[in-house]
Amino acid sequence: MDFMSSERPINPRFAEDVHFDLVAPGPSRYRTRTDKPVRYFTVVDKEGGAALGYVWASDEDDAAAWVPRNAAGGRALAEGGHWHARLQEAKGRGILPSQALAEMLSNPEGNRGRALPGSLTDAPNADAVKSLAKGE
Q: Region annotation Disordered: residue ranges (predicted)?
């Protein structure tokens, strides 16, 4: 039996034209990596004041992210959703990452944590903040 015969019927599913629908892009997001200098602040636990993580930003690469502190465990991971959502909302409004940080510091309350007053500082890049979060 010859399976390559040109006399085989065409599968009707493939006989119709193909249409592609344009899909709106997903939510706006800042880049999550940069090797450029960043500014960051510390988020501390409302119960006890232990550092939960850091929010960093770099206008040069339009980048910003939440970095959970390893030692803070699940509380840091859970708190990250709040800060990530705030970054995403700020990007959706088209503001610079540094402006997003300023807004967060002016309204410092998170779910389990809050921005530590006076903790805004500089780092050479995002990897330096990630190393800090790992406890290196």
A: 106-136
Q: Using one digit for the tens of pLDDT, what is the confidence trace for 11-53?
A: 655 556 655 556 556 568 999 999 999 999 999 999 999 999 9
- Domain coordinates of the chain in residue numbers? 28-134
Tokens of 35: 């090797």
The answer to whether the Cα torsion of 65, 71, 75, 77 is positive or negative is positive
What size, in residues, is the chain?
136
> Which residues fall within 8 angstroms of residue 128, CB to CB, at 6 or more apart?
38
68 token code pair: 């959970």
pTM: 0.80
Partner residues linked to 122 by β-bridges: 39
